[in-house]
Amino acid sequence: MNPTPWAAYAFHPLEAVVEAGIVVVFAFVIPVHPLSISLFLLIIMM
């Protein structure tokens, strides 16, 4: 079975919250410029 581009978004909502929470925890533990976080999120969504 070949994966489609939509397969990247096929996960449980709880998994999405946990993955998004990692970015929030990272931002509080290590001081990161907001532009850096924005670029990181943009890159991982491509």
Question: Could you please describe the fold and organization of this structure?
Answer:
It is a single chain. This protein is mainly α. The chain has one domain (12-44). Helices cover 61% and strands 0% of the residues. It contains two helices and no strands. The protein has helices at 13-29, 34-44. The longest helix has 17 residues, at 13-29. The chain is flat. The two termini are 22 Å apart.
Which helices and strands occur, and which strands form pairs?
Blueprint: H1 13-29, H2 34-44
User: What is the chain-wise order of helices and strands?
Assistant: HH
What portion of the residues fall into strands of 2 or more residues? under 5%
Distance from N terminus to C terminus (CA atoms, Å) equals 22 Å
Radius of gyration of CA atoms, rounded to a whole number: 13 Å
Number of helices in the DSSP assignment: 2
For the record, the count of structural domains works out to 1
Shape: flat
Unreliable spans are none
Oligomer: single chain
Per DSSP E runs of 2 or more residues, the count of β-strands stands at: 0
Structural class: mainly alpha
Helicity, in percent? 55-70%
Mean pLDDT metric = 83
Main pleated-sheet profile:
none
Keywords:
46 residues; flat
At a glance:
With 46 residues, the chain is mostly helical.
